[in-house]
Design brief:
Blueprint: H1 2-17, E1 23-24, E2 37-39, H2 43-46, E3 55-56, E4 59-61, E5 67-68, H3 71-83, E6 92-102, H4 108-116, E7 130-140, E8 143-153, H5 159-179
Parallel strand pairs: 1-5, 2-6
Antiparallel strand pairs: 3-4, 4-6, 6-7, 7-8
Helix pairs in contact: 3-5
């Protein structure tokens, strides 16, 4: 009895532990010196637990550990590419970097619950389709900047992993374009 209980617990832990999505972003961040980002995001955001238990039906925020390479290194590299020494020595604070995986509701009940939830107002272009929605907030020397991105997940098997890099890179590019001219 005791041995079989341990086996069930071990197998369950392996299965549940392997359920977290992992996305590879085909970008090699550069080694950056002179730009430091202070991450002031709440721990719940870093862990992807902005919703109860990290999920609300088929909607979830993705944790930092879901990305390879990590998205903060990609952000730092892109900031360096675009602004170089103009950011050197400035206080840079990352206030938010959220990626929501929204899967279209499969039932009318799920759709009604979603519309009534706090997520119902985040700006999903078409709630009958699946999306990655990203937003980012950053302050540089006290100036605040933000970016937003929505990338549709095409129907079909394997399309989610293909769409994810565009969501992360899209939100970073939107942020950078909103920062243009701020450091001239």
């Amino acid at each position: 009895m005791a041995k079989s209980a341990y086996i069930v617990i071990a197998v369950s832990a392996l299965l549940l532990g392997g359920c977290a999505p992992s996305y590879t972003i085909d970008v090699a961040p550069q080694e950056v010196r002179g730009i430091e980002i202070t991450d002031v995001r709440p721990i719940e955001e870093r862990d992807g637990k902005l919703l109860p238990y990290g999920r609300d039906f088929s909607h979830s925020f993705l944790a930092d550990s879901s990305f390879q390479p990590d998205r903060i290194s990609i952000l730092k590299s892109k900031l360096h590419e675009r602004f170089g020494p103009k950011l050197s020595g400035k206080l840079i604070e990352l206030r938010a970097f959220r990626i929501l995986q929204y899967t279209a509701p499969r039932t009318n009940l799920q759709a009604a619950i979603f519309r009534g939830s706090p997520l119902g107002s985040i700006g999903i272009p078409d709630p009958d389709r699946s999306w990655f929605i990203g937003d980012i907030e950053l302050s540089v020397g006290g100036k605040k900047f933000s970016g937003h991105s929505a990338v549709e997940i095409p129907p079909g098997i394997g399309t989610m992993k293909a769409a994810m890099p565009n969501a992360v890179l899209g939100v970073i590019e939107n942020l950078l374009s909103n920062m243009n001219g701020a450091f001239e």
